[in-house]
Amino acid sequence: MYSWEDSEDRVAIVQMNAELRHAQLELLSAQCATHRLRLRFSNEDLARYAQRDILRKAFEAASGLHEYYSAIHQLLSGGEADVNGIVVSDDKAKEAIGLVATYLQKERERYYPLGKALDTRHKLMLQPFFSAGMLEKVRVVELFGERVSNPSFFTEAKALGFTNLPELTHMPSLTFIDVIVFNEQITTQALFHGLVHAVQFQILGPQHYAETFVRAFLRTHSHVTVPLESHAFALDARFAANPAESFSVEEKVRMWVREGRY
After folding, report:
1. How far is C-alpha 250 from the geometric centre of its chain's CA atoms?
2. Taking a C-beta distance cutoff of 8 angstroms, is the pair 177, 198 a contact?
3. What's the Cα-to-Cα distance from 129 to each of 125, 137, 229, 251, 256, rounded to whole Å?
4. What percent of the chain has pLDDT over 90?
5. Which of 27, 41, 238, 249 would you call most buried, defined as having the most Cβ atoms within 10 angstroms of its Cβ?
C-alpha cells in the first residue's frame, strides 16, 4: 500500500491521480455519447437492431467499469458525501442560482471584447437553423495557451459533496449568453451546440437560464442530463447526422419551454 510519507510513493500517487483524471474525462465523453444514443433511440430499438457484437462489447465494458468503481466506492469510509443524499435548502439553491447568474454575466463581459463575428462560411452553413439576427449577434472566442477555468464557487460545492460538477477546462466550448468561448479550435458541431445555448439564453433570459440549470442539476446530479444541456446535445447530434435537413432551433427551444421540458 502506498504511503504519502514515502517520496517515491508520492510520485506514484500524483501519477495515479493524473491517470484517474484522464479516465474520468474519457468516461464523461462516453456518458455524453450514450446520452445522445438514448435521446434518439429507444431501448427496444437497440435490443432489436443493434449489432450484437458491438452491443456485447458495450455491456462488458460498462459492467466491468461498474464492478471496478463500485468496489472502490465500498472502501470509502464516509470521506465523500453521496450526492444523492445531499439536501439543499431553497435558500441555498437561490444562492447557487445567484452565483451562476453572476458568473455567466462576468464571463460574458470578460470575453465579449475579445470576440469576433461569425465568418461568412459558418453563417451560410448555419442559416437554415438559426435566425440571421442570432448569427449576427453572437461572438466567438478561440483561446490559445489558456482555457476557461472553473468558477471559484465550485470549491464550496465540491466540499458539500457535489463531485460531478462539469470540468469547464476540458469542455470544447462554453456559452456565456451571446459569447461562445472555445477551449480548442472551432468545430462546426461545437459551434452549433454553443449557438443552441445562445438561443436558450435569448429566450429564457440569463437569470431564468441560471435558475433552470441549477434546479435541474440539483435533481439530476449531472450536467449532461440537465434538459438545457441534453437538448443542445440532441440538436447538435441531429445536425451532425444530416446537415442538409434544416430545422429552426428557436422553434425547438420555444416548444420545450411551452411544454415545460426545461
Report:
1. 20
2. yes
3. 9, 15, 18, 10, 16
4. 51
5. 249
User: From CA 243, how far away is CA 89, in angstroms rounded?
Assistant: 44
Question: Considering the entire predicted model, what is its pTM?
Answer: 0.70
| Residue 84 grid coordinates | 444523492
3-class secondary structure, 51: coil
Say which residue the cell 428557436 belongs to: 250
Query: C-alpha grid cell for residue 123?
Result: 453563417
Which pLDDT belongs to residue 77?
A: 43
What is the rounded average pLDDT of the residues 204-220? 94
The DSSP string of 105-153 is HHHHHHHGGG-EEPPHHHHHHHTTTS-HHHHHH-EEEE-SS--PPPPTH
Instruction: Report the alpha-carbon distance of residue 30 to residue 42 in Å, rounded.
Output: 18
| Strands lying side by side in the sheet with 116-117 | 116-117, 139-142, 179-182, 173-176
Residue keyed to cell 468516461: 27
Per-residue pLDDT of 27-63, as tens digits, reads 777 877 887 787 778 777 777 888 888 877 787 677 6
